[in-house]
């Protein structure tokens, strides 16, 4: 298994000899609803769009997960798997092979990688977006991804998973509450899934943010704190901080069975 962290929520996953582009924001700024004064993300280092993509995987329909300027640069013939809301975004952009997954539904990529949608982040009072479990079907390798730190209790029945790609910090807006609740939830999901590796996502990378919202955000948690917590829970899990833009191999010591 090889991974490349592309900043924010974006990853290139190489599993089962397939290349999966996850929640890509790779070109242009990150702005919600044209409100750059409220929140705007910019890259310090340009990220080239990866080649030979077998699948685009989208967890949410929001701009930081289904980024329209990036999706407009990609080949519309690439298959896409996403939440119901993400599927609406890519269909509106002209993608031709789109599979929307509700919670509990699965998609198998070329008989090599099975992708299961699980409940993820709540967006408002009525919508819950997707997290994903990816499993290599012919060998060792499984991944759980959820970008905001909302982990469904249904994961207790998932068995052990090798790699967790989850946030490890809290990002909160005073009086409004958490945007990301990684610090509050990562220890619990690690105890459920007993991973070999945790890779922080969502609140990192070679990016800078500006705007009114950024000025009031409060961050809590760190890699060091998580390592101490895992050790206190007798978990041998490694916490790896990936270098943005650098491909690296995740060395798994044994096959984790579900």
UniProtKB/TrEMBL annotation:
Q: Where are the transmembrane segments?
A: 20-39
- Enumerate the InterPro entries for this protein: RibonucZ/Hydroxyglut_hydro
Q: Which domain of life does the protein's organism represent?
A: Bacteria
Question: Known Gene3D superfamilies for this protein?
Answer: Ribonuclease Z/Hydroxyacylglutathione hydrolase-like (3.60.15.10)
Which keywords annotate this record?
A: Membrane, Transmembrane, Transmembrane helix
SUPFAM superfamilies recorded: Metallo-hydrolase/oxidoreductase (SSF56281)
Record-linked PANTHER family: METALLO-HYDROLASE/OXIDOREDUCTASE SUPERFAMILY PROTEIN, METALLO-HYDROLASE_OXIDOREDUCTASE SUPERFAMILY PROTEIN
Name assigned to this protein? MBL fold metallo-hydrolase
Record lineage: Bacteria, Bacillati, Cyanobacteriota, Cyanophyceae, Oscillatoriophycideae
């Amino acid at each position: 298994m090889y991974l490349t962290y592309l900043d924010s929520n974006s990853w290139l996953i190489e599993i089962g000899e397939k290349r999966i582009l996850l929640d890509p924001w790779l070109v242009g700024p990150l702005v919600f609803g044209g409100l750059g004064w409220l929140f705007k993300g910019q890259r310090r280092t340009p990220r080239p769009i990866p080649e030979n993509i077998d699948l685009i995987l989208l967890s949410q329909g929001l701009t930081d997960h289904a980024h329209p300027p990036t999706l407009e640069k990609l080949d519309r013939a690439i298959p896409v798997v996403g939440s119901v809301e993400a599927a609406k975004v890519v269909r509106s952009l002209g993608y031709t092979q789109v599979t929307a997954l509700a919670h509990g539904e699965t998609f198998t990529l070329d008989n090599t990688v099975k992708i299961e949608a699980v409940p993820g982040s709540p967006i408002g009072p009525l919508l819950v977006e997707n997290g994903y479990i990816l499993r290599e079907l012919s060998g060792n390798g499984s991944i759980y991804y959820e970008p905001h730190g909302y982990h469904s209790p249904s994961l207790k029945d998932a068995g052990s998973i090798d790699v967790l790609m989850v946030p490890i910090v809290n990002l909160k807006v005073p009086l409004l509450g958490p945007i990301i609740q990684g610090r509050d939830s990562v220890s619990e999901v690690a105890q459920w899934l007993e991973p070999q590796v945790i890779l922080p996502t969502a609140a990192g990378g070679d990016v800078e943010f500006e705007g009114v919202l950024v000025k009031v955000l409060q961050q809590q948690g760190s890699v060091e704190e998580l390592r101490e917590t895992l050790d206190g829970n007798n978990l041998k899990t490694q916490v790896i901080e990936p270098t943005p833009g650098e491909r690296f191999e995740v060395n798994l010591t044994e096959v984790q069975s579900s």
